[in-house]
Specification:
163 residues, two-stranded antiparallel ribbon, mainly alpha, 2 strands, globular
C-alpha cells in the first residue's frame, strides 16, 4: 500500500514540475473530461486523498474553493500541507487496519459502509485515473506526458526477513 502511495506522490511531483512550462491560462483552460482542467485536476487529486484519510480518522474535512488555489504554487503549497498528515497515516498503515469499518454519511443522507483497505485502494486508483487524463491533455497540447511507469522509480519494498 505504501509503495503505491509513494509512486503517486512521485508522479504528482513530476506533474507539478511539468506544469511549470505552461502558462496560467493553459493550466486553467477548461478541458473535456476530468474535473475541468489541468490545475483543477491536480487540486482535486490532493483534496480527495486528504479528505478520505481525514474521514477515516473521524477528523474534519477540507471545504476550500478551488478559486482560492488557482495557481500552481498555491496548489503545491496546499498539497504539501496535506501531505504531512496523509504520509503519517500511510506510513503507519498495517494489516490490522485493513478491515476497519468506515460508515460514510456524506452522500445525500444515504449511509455507505466500506473497509479502510478498500478506501485506501480507491484513493490510489483515483489518482492513477486522473494522471491518465493529464497524460491525454499533455498529448493534446503536443507535449510529452510524465511517465506513469512504476519500474525504475526505486520503489522496491523491503520484505520482512529479506533485509
Amino acid at each position: 500500500m505504501q509503495t503505491l502511495f509513494r509512486y503517486n506522490w512521485m508522479v504528482r511531483e513530476e506533474w507539478y514540475k511539468w506544469c511549470e512550462s505552461l502558462s496560467v491560462e493553459e493550466l486553467l483552460r477548461p478541458r473535456t473530461g476530468g474535473v475541468g482542467g489541468i490545475l483543477k485536476t491536480l487540486f482535486h487529486i490532493a483534496d480527495v486523498e486528504w479528505s478520505w484519510i481525514m474521514a477515516m480518522q473521524g477528523k474534519p474535512d477540507f471545504e476550500e474553493d478551488f478559486a482560492e488555489y488557482s495557481t500552481l504554487e498555491k496548489v503545491k503549497e496546499l498539497d504539501a500541507r496535506f501531505r504531512s498528515e496523509v504520509e503519517t497515516f500511510v506510513l503507519g498503515w498495517h494489516e490490522g487496519l485493513e478491515r476497519n469499518v468506515f460508515v460514510d454519511k456524506r452522500y445525500e443522507g444515504e449511509q455507505v459502509t466500506d473497509a479502510w483497505g478498500e478506501i485506501m485502494r480507491h484513493i490510489i486508483a483515483h489518482e492513477i485515473h486522473h494522471i491518465g487524463q493529464l497524460s491525454v491533455w499533455a498529448r493534446e497540447l503536443g507535449h510529452k506526458p510524465v511517465s506513469a511507469n512504476v519500474i525504475g522509480r526505486g520503489l522496491r519494498e523491503t520484505l520482512p526477513g529479506k533485509g
